[in-house]
Request: fold
Amino acid sequence: MTGNIAIVGLGPGRETLVTPEVRDMLAQATDVIGYIPYVARVAPREGLTLHASDNRVEIDRATHALQLAKDGARVVVVSSGDPGVFAMASAVFEAMQAQPQFAGAEITVMPGITAMLAAAAAAGAPLGHDFCAINLSDNLKPWETVARRLRLAAEADFAMAFYNPRSKSRPHQFGEALDILRGACGPDRLVIFARNVSLPDQTLNTVTLGEATAEMADMRTVVLVGNSATRRVGKYVYTPRSAP
Reply:
């Protein structure tokens, strides 16, 4: 291994939320690898090769990054948000473990601001006490696992953040998720739908579980669900730091 890999988060969308550390690493890169819309956020320049690929080839993308680094490149693997939250950091380490020729890879993971945290900040402080994050997509795990985690998180009275709530290929599952939550939490729990968080067309919609519908979310939406103590104050939503 003569090169190296940095796995970075580009934040939730607004360019001012990309950390200076990540900007510096991108300025030093010879190659940038990632999902098509994330690579599109990196400005082309002389000496930089951009490698954009589709969404469901994470291990292939990670292997490509490792091979480039083995050949001497300074590789940056880009994710949105934070690279360790439902993103590329795990994929790179998985590919590294599966392929012994990459055992000596030098890897740096650089944190970023997640959509979950940006949405919570825009709403107030709904994640102010214990919370969990759940990816509602069943692409990499069975829906039964998702449903079980939802029930247990609701029974434990966590505030919750949901990634990938609803897509064209999964139009009905978010409705099932809302039914699970209503059964465990009742209809009065506060729910925040944050779409295009941090961008100029950001929207926040706060409703109760009884009012929430599946159509309120899509793949550009982060959904935050409060715990039993979460409340409104003016236009803001917050969860007290003490346990209910």
User: Anything to note?
Assistant: DSSP finds seven helices and 13 strands in the chain. The first strand starts at residue 4 and ends at 9. The domain at 4-113 is CATH 3.40.1010.10 (Cobalt-precorrin-4 Transmethylase; domain 1).
